[in-house]
């Protein structure tokens, strides 16, 4: 009995499975991928995760279907000792393996670079980010002392607040810095993560696109209460923000007076407190 053309048969099964599964993955799983669509940057992450998943689906199918195909079709008959043809030295398989994997990896590197270059993708861009979004921006300084973030609003008299509140649909320019050891500011639902290093002004842009409560965590081991460096922030309407920031200015007026003047970075906290 003549052997069927396994490569062609397997290729056809894989192609059909890929053509069915990849759109399903994009349509059904894409919308529920993390971190959700809480900001323009977070929505960008969802898009990126969808692209990665769509590219990974044919690869996963290749491995799983080949495994099943081999188990079913290449099963050793009872009592027989058959040897298949050696794949080693097959230049077609070697060439396509190297070409396909190289194209996949290099195209992902290009895609990632382009996406980062477009808007910073919610990551810290250092003191002078390569790309600065156009239009008005609300500057907010994120201060990371051990073990609670605080927030300073330089355009509102430099008031420093214990919680982060942001107006919706407003581009925010976060200036992340530390007053002691290294921390990392991570606002999960906003798709923002930026290192907080002492003496460094790490700038990250984010535009929240819906009213929400989001989580803020420290994402860099920073001492014994690192795990408790956790808080909730809020995205509110422009009107609510105006009311809130005014209340903060009034409530913290005595504290604002004794704070050091607003600056991109500060001396370490013990010096700051002792001033
Ligand atoms: Cu920390």
Task: Report on this structure.
The chain has 275 residues and is an alpha+beta fold. The chain is 41% helix and 19% strand. A hairpin with a 5-residue loop joins strand 2 (150-153) and strand 3 (159-161). The radius of gyration is 27 Å and the shape is elongated. Bound molecules: copper (II) ion. Copper (II) ion binds at residues 144, 183, 218, 220, 222, 226, 229.
- Hey, roughly how much beta strand do the residues contain? 15-25%
Tally of individual domains: 2
What sequence of helices (H) and strands (E) makes up the elements?
A: HHHEEEEEEEEEEHHH
Radius of gyration (CA) equals: 27 Å
Order of strands side by side in the largest beta sheet? 3-2-1-5-8
Give the mean pLDDT: 91
Main structural class: alpha+beta
What small molecules does this complex bind?
copper (II) ion
- The percent range for helix content is 40-55%
CATH class of the largest domain: Mainly Beta
Show unreliable segments. none
CATH superfamily descriptor of the largest domain: Cupredoxins -  blue copper proteins
What features would you highlight for this structure?
6 helices; Immunoglobulin-like; alpha+beta; binds copper (II) ion; 275 residues; 5-stranded mixed β-sheet
Q: Which secondary structure elements does this structure contain, and how are they paired or packed?
A:
Elements: H1 6-29, H2 40-73, H3 91-119, E1 138-144, E2 150-153, E3 159-161, E4 165-167, E5 172-178, E6 183-187, E7 192-196, E8 202-206, E9 212-218, E10 230-236, H4 238-251, H5 253-258, H6 269-274
Parallel strand pairs: 1-5, 4-10
Antiparallel strand pairs: 1-2, 2-3, 5-8, 6-7, 6-9, 9-10
